[in-house]
Amino acid sequence: MNKGLLIVISGPSGAGKGTIYSQIIKRTDMKRSVSVTTRQPRPGEVEGVNYYFRTEEQYQQMIAAGDFLETAEVYHNLYGTPKAPVFENMKNGYNVLFEVDVHGVRSIKKKYPEAVAIFIMTPDFKTLEQRLRARGTETEDSLKIRLGAARRELSEYKLFDYIVFNDEVDLAIDEVLDIITAEKRKIINNEEKIQALLAEQDEE
Ligand code: 5GP
Question: At residue 75, does pLDDT exceed 90?
């Protein structure tokens, strides 16, 4: 069996990465990576589904135990990817999908350069601002902070392998799925299977 791929989705808040992420999980057999966070659950969020919600103290214990593949502070809360389930899933041939901030992408790429990183962006900043306003969850101040952060995140584009401009969300989802298919079909990701086929031929 081929080892699964590690696919990372990132991009500014408001670009639609959360929607794209959950649709891909719904439509494929990819495994999601459930992050740990110290932030409070939002209404409707479920422990173990959206996040593992932990206290700052519990989180620090996990850091000390080396439980994280990466950890970052985002908007004054800690977020981290637990290591063990990711490698377990990959070993069993599953592709694993992550949604992390840009710092998370950098740490993951450092530890695991084969990870495929996809940046989700709106067609322009004006659209990003409109979407953030439409969410109705941001104050003027937090809107400014998020737009400033979006610019900084986009300027880190060299960390990424692909960019998808989310104009129509269904098209953006299709593009991400196309990227994943192309990555799965790379020769380098199919060597074991090809070798097995060749061995079969030798036996005949
Ligand atoms: P939210 O609080 O809105 O769920 O997430 C805030 C930000 O944290 C998002 O940009 C999201 O991508 C990022 N995030 C969620 N989980 C992780 C994680 O495990 N690691 C990192 N580095 N960022 C994360």
Answer: no
